[in-house]
Amino acid sequence: MPDGTTALSLTLHPRIADIPGADWDECAGDTNPFVSHTFLSVLEESGSAAARTGWLPQHAVLRDASGSIVGVAPMYAKSHSYGEYVFDHGWAHAFERAGGAYYPKLQVSVPFSPVPGPRLLMRPSTADVARSVPLAAMAAALEEACRQLDLSSVHVTFCNEAEWSALGAAGWLQRTGMQFHWQNEGYRTFEDFLSALSSRKRKAIRRERREAAPGLTLRVLSGNEIEPRHWKSFYGFYTSTVDRKWGSAYLTPCFFPLLAERLGDKVVLMLAEQDGKAVAGALNLIGGDTLYGRNWGCRGEWPFLHFELCYYQAIEFAIARGLKRVEAGAQGQHKIQRGYLPARTFSAHWIAHPGLRHAVADFLRHERAEISADMAALAEHSPFRAG
Questions:
Q1: pLDDT at 7
Q2: Which residues sit opposite 220 in a β-bridge?
Q3: Which pLDDT score is estimated for 3?
Q4: 185-323 to CATH, choices 1.10.620.20, 1.10.260.40, 3.40.50.720, 3.40.630.30
Q5: What is the pLDDT of residues 314-328, one digit of tens each?
């Protein structure tokens, strides 16, 4: 352990149910639902984050000398790199070609959720006094756990910038990525937002909205308003999207209704119906000041329906609720023209093998420069009026 942290100890737990929910949530806070005890419990109880999908829980708990919990981290032993959205397949292939074993590895993240937020979750009283001390202790403890388990690496993905900086100071490799987020600049209505755009972009969005849902009824449901029939339809949308992308359906049919049961009105479903039957849907979660867009799917062909349900309905909802931001998931440069601008994401990586660590460090230096250049170039395509 670093200086001043010798009294801290780390334990690993194969079920989040083994960690008291109140202690976990006191560390996690209430602004990001994805790191809540409830969300992570639903992933496990539904069989989504489990041996079947290659996500074996190894949740980290940091305690002080009295046994009190100082910090926690959602962590999994992984036998592959799927469902992470921060791609390290190239690192794995290179290491294995050189005779190494990249898997299993440890992954500090929220399974199947490319949602930025805290990952090394510290009790507020501890963080307020000297946040760098428990963060450094957690980093050192995760490194030691990786060594003792004889694994290749530990990866903290989609962490916040403060954690990224602290892990970098502790010698971890720093990686950046890019998403596209919408910011609420105090808009009162959707038309208020449109007035901030250039005339051409404003007209394009209005046209897309007019043509998005001919003959469809759009509904926004939350909590108990979402009925079992809606979730049954939505699961079909989810698997349809997975099939088109040649992916794996990690989330089980009971995940979505269980999530709504446990999180209540924090779960929001944007639906499109035709003759009373759901034909498309987009799942969102509400955080402290952010609407998080997650899964989407559609049965049928409506050219602009994806933009309407995932982007424009989300913006309208955020404005009505006074939320500051909409984060609509990974990738998608097409989001820029719809008001979602580039935002940097952060990950940190500890790799045991010196040769692989050196090679990855060199790769990440170049990648960070490319990400910065891409963000600068994309910012020039902002749809907002100058000034």
A1: 82
A2: 270
A3: 43
A4: 3.40.630.30
A5: 999 999 999 999 998
- Inter-residue contact 146 to 352 (CB < 8 Å): yes
pTM: 0.94
CB distance 60 to 54 below 8 Å: no
Q: How far apart are CA 245 and CA 13, in angstroms?
A: 33
Q: Which residues of 210-220 are buried (b: 16+ CB within 10 A; e: fewer)?
A: eebbeebebeb
Instruction: Pull the structure tokens for residue 80.
Output: 């592959």
Specify the pLDDT at position 129: 43
Q: For the domain with range 9-178+343-379, which CATH number is right: 3.30.1360.180, 3.40.50.720, 3.40.1550.10, 3.40.630.30?
A: 3.40.630.30
Instruction: Dig out the tokens for 147 from the structure.
Output: 């060594």
Neighbours of 197 (CB within 10 A): 19
Query: For residues 313 and 306, what is the distance between their CA atoms, to the nearest angstrom?
Result: 10
CA distance linking residue 67 with residue 214, whole number of Å: 60
Domain ranges of the chain: 9-178+343-379, 185-323
How sure is the predictor about 1, in pLDDT bands with cuts at 50, 70 and 90?
very low
128-145 pLDDT, tens digit per residue, is 444 567 788 999 999 999
Would the pLDDT of 82 be above 70? yes
